[in-house]
Amino acid sequence: MTTIQSTLFSDIENIIKELNPQTISDERKAVLQPLTEFIQSKLSENQEIRINFICTHNSRRSHLSQVWAQTMANYFNIKNVFCYSGGTESTALFPMVAETLQNSGFQIKTISKNENPIYSIKYADNEHPIIGFSKKIDDDFNPKSEFAAIMTCSQADGGCPFIAGAEKRIPITFEDPKAFDNTPQQAEKYNERSVQIATELFYVFSQIN
Questions:
Q1: How confident is residue 155, by pLDDT bands cut at 50, 70 and 90?
Q2: Mean pLDDT (whole number) for 9-15
Q3: Mean pLDDT score of the chain
Q4: Taking residues 156-169, what's their average pLDDT?
């Protein structure tokens, strides 16, 4: 396991320390394995590691995955990891996602308020913030080649047979917390999904040598 030299905000670090990768089933570990192998192979060849998390609207699961993956790379001190997110269409980063991340210790700033707001998401004092907003897969903000496309929802996986420039396409789908929008369980279910994504990405990065 990589030496941990974390510079994360303490609230985030505390959440990470409470994650329990033992809750991940063997079936799910098999689903996560190709991502571990992609990261390991890039690292072994001293190449930059680009991961683009993709969902239909780039509004919920893909952003949670992008943010937690970048955070875990920092936590496990794995260099040259660049995480992105995109959708088959662009809508807006759903406000509950920003709120869920803020409640987990991330520092969130709204840079621009419009129909598709732009957020700065910081996980550590001295690291670049993640810029969160909804965008299509081929947006100029995203890599054009040499990246792994992680399909975080089955609609995007099924409806997007070809991802231009992707070196590898890996389906790692998550249930959509959108099902609980405007219900009393909304905050709880978004947090539950965030914790699941964090736990699974913790497991992925913990496997890297």
A1: confident
A2: 97
A3: 95
A4: 86
CA 134 to chain centre: 13
Q: What is the largest CA-CA distance in the chain?
A: 48
Give the global pTM. 0.95
Residues β-bridged to residue 52: 84, 149
Crossing angle between the packed helical segments 61-75 and 10-18, to the nearest 10 degrees:
100
Sheet holding 49-55, edge to edge: 81-87, 49-55, 147-151, 166-171
Torsions phi, psi for 171 (to 5 deg): -80, 115
User: How many Å apart are CA 35 and CA 51, to the nearest integer?
Assistant: 9
Long-range contacts of residues 138-141, Cβ cutoff 8 Å, at least 24 apart: 138/86, 138/164, 139/86, 139/90, 141/84
Which tokens go with 44? 């072994």
Token pair belonging to 17: 């320390």
CA distance 67 to 62: 9
Q: What are phi and psi of 75, to 5 degrees?
A: -60, -40
Beta pairing partners, 107: 122
Cβ atoms of residues 125 and 132 within 8 Å:
no
Radius of gyration of the chain (CA): 16
The 3-state DSSP class for residue 154 equals: helix
pLDDT tens per residue, range 32-71: 999 999 999 999 999 999 999 999 999 999 999 999 999 9
